[in-house]
Every structure is written in C-alpha cells, then in structure tokens.
Amino acid sequence: MTITAPAPSPSFGLSRTIRLGIRRIGFELKQYFRAGDQVFFTFLFPTLMYMIFATIFTGDIGEGPDAVSMATYYLPGLIAGGILLSGVQGPALEIATEKSDGTLKRLGGTPISPVTYFLGKIGEVFVTAILQIALLMVVAAVVFGAELPTEPEAWLRFAWIFVLGLITCTLLGIALSSVPRSGKTAGAVVIPVVLLIQFISGVYIAFAMLPEWLQTASGVLPVKWIAQGMRSVFLPDSFKAAEVSGSWELGMIAIMLAGWLVIGFVLSRITFRWIRRDG
Description:
Elements: H1 14-34, H2 36-56, E1 60-61, E2 68-69, H3 70-100, H4 103-108, H5 114-143, H6 152-176, H7 183-200, H8 212-218, H9 222-234, H10 250-271
Antiparallel strand pairs: 1-2
C-alpha cells in the first residue's frame, strides 16, 4: 500500500500576508458603503456638524491681519473629529458586529491571519477618511469660504499628523471593539465614548475654555493632540497663544501620538479574538 504524504500547507509569509490584506481592503470598502446608516453617522457626520457650526457662528475671530472667519476656525477641530470617527468609531462598531454575527468565527477557520484582517480594516479606514476629510474641506472652502493653507510646509505637517493620528485611532478602535458584549450593544457603548472624547478634546469647544481639572484629565487623549496639530496647520501662528502652553508643541504632538500608537497596537493584539468572549 502506498501512503501519500499530505500536501504541504500554503506558505503565508509576510509578502503574501500583505497582498491578501491589500486585496481585503476592497471587500471592506464594499461592506462599508453598503451600510447606509454607517455612511451617514461616520462618513457624513463631520461635514454635517461643520455646516451647522459654520452656519450658526459667523463673523471673524482674532485681530488685525491674522483674523479668520469662524468657518476657518472650526475646520481643524472637525477634521480631528472626523479622524476620530473614522479610526475609532467605525472599526469598533464593525468588528463588534462581526464578532457577534459569527463573521470573525468563520474567518478564524480560514488561513487568514489577524494581520491580514487588520490591514483590510486599516486600509478601509484610510480610504474613507481621506474621502471624508476631502469632502469636508471642499464644503468648507467652496460653500463657506474657509481659508485653506497655501504653504507646502503646512500640508506636509497636515499629512504626518493625519497619518499618525489615523493609524493610532484605528488601533484604539480595534481594541475598543472588545468592550461591547454583542453587536446589538456596540452602538450604546462606542458612540457615547466617542462623543464625550470629542467634547473634551477641543473638537467642538476650545480646549482652553475647559475647566483646568478637565484639561489635565483630557490632555493625554490623542484627539486633543490631533486637534491641536490641525489648528497649527489651518490657523495663523498668532493663534498658538490661545493654546494652554502658548505654543503648538509639534514635537509633543508626535511623541503623544506615537505613544498612543504603541498602546493601541499592544491593546489590539491582546484583546482581539476571532470569537466573542462568551463564545
């Protein structure tokens, strides 16, 4: 009798893992835009909130040649809020739902690795966030006359804050997805957390206007630093005097976001499971 050796399992090295992750981005995007409620509450929400603020609050803020319209003043905060929504709220709700309905359990039975799955989610977040922020800036500039930066240095600063902030928020969103016990309760857990963070991080209210104890408590949150970085991009340099430290603190922004990126990576790897905690 001849014994046939089992066929060797396919090699899933780094290059193939990355290729599969990139391929999965397209699938994740299709799933994202098929969910109308998700598109409304994460993709369009920052633009809608911006339109409300820019319509209600008119006039200029600041003095002399450095004065800017309220439409320009609120833009960096809403961009930071959009990064938070795309990076934290979106993945947290998606993954919690996929755990609850058995999607992740089925994926866990395939050769796909968590890294491939993460790459798909991060890719989806980047594409949707870029489209989301682009829409927000177009509406701000065309409809409300907000002033956009003209210096290449400002756009380079925008780019690294955007990329670093979005990766950080996405990893934290993956970690947060482990908190809801089911897909049905995910919204009740995630959305209030995201809204609270926006209000205490300088997205809707100037950070310096918060009580001192609240500034101390929320000063470590990554969104606070993303919003501060975006203000350094879109507002005149004289506005840094309104910051708590009296400066933009670009070096501290990079350090704080990098620190949260490491924390988010560790938490996402520790907490991620293919099945529910009670599964």
